[in-house]
């Protein structure tokens, strides 16, 4: 039963709590605009000196311009990640614009660093993702519709209409990362024999895909 006396352990725990609270309060700051001339780290970019920060660091104007969709996938992504938009450094957010021409596709891909929220602002998009249990969730999205793609899961977007589709996507990370499955498999120098083993495709198919996507081996 407590007798109201303090013990060395309770004193130590109280001091530790005070130190932790003091350290946490000392780290509180309004922002940490990324110094993108330095190296990125898992914790983000180092902060620019506040005296060097300007309003431009908190503004990104590129999402008002359509991306160039004259490419293999007939789609373009205009990112406003920390590398292009230093003001989001350390804030756990970023944004991008998707332009998908008629017949275009954002192939199966993942963002290992963050979840994605998509809002359609023009056209029609068939979008979906695959869970770690291989369950598939996909639907057709129209103007104003929103869909979320959980962090790290394979997902895709396809223009399923007859006009260019446009969407704004936001992320729960200033640098969500990107890996496109087809490019990861066929746009590298991994020997074709190994790709055939891990994909169950035959040699002709693998070499054809490597040629189309720029791989070798």
From TrEMBL:
Keywords: Apoplast, Disulfide bond, Manganese, Metal-binding, Secreted, Signal. Disulfide bonds join 32-47. Transmembrane segments: none annotated. GO terms for molecular function: manganese ion binding. Oxalate binds at residues 111, 116. It is found in: Secreted, Extracellular space, Apoplast. Mn(2+) binds at residues 109, 111, 116, 155. Residues 61-207 form the Cupin type-1 domain. It comes from the Eukaryota. Residues 1-26 form the signal peptide. Pfam families: Cupin_1. InterPro entries: Cupin_1, Germin, Germin_Mn-BS, RmlC-like_jellyroll, RmlC_Cupin_sf. GO terms for cellular component: apoplast. Belongs to the germin family. This is Germin-like protein. It comes from Ensete ventricosum.
């Amino acid at each position: 039963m407590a007798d109201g006396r303090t013990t060395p352990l309770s004193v130590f725990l109280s001091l530790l709590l005070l130190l932790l609270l003091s350290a946490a309060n000392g780290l509180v700051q309004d922002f940490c605009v990324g110094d993108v001339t330095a190296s990125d780290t898992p914790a983000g970019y180092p902060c620019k000196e506040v005296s060097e920060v300007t309003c431009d660091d908190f503004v990104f104007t590129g999402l008002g311009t359509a991306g160039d969709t004259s490419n293999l996938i007939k789609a373009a992504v205009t990112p406003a990640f920390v590398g292009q938009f230093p003001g989001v450094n350390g804030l756990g957010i970023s944004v991008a614009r998707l332009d998908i021409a008629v017949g275009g596709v954002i192939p199966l891909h993942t963002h290992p660093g963050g979840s994605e929220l998509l809002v359609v602002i023009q056209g029609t998009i068939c979008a979906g993702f695959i869970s770690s249990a291989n369950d598939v969730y996909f639907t057709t999205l129209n103007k104003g519709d929103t869909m979320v793609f959980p962090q790290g899961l394979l997902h895709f977007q396809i223009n399923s209409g007859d006009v260019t589709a446009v969407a704004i996507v936001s992320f729960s990370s200033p640098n969500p990362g990107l890996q496109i499955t087809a490019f990861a498999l066929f746009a590298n120098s991994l020997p074709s024999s190994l790709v055939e083993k891990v994909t169950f495709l035959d040699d002709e198919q693998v070499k054809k895909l490597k040629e189309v996507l720029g791989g070798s081996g």
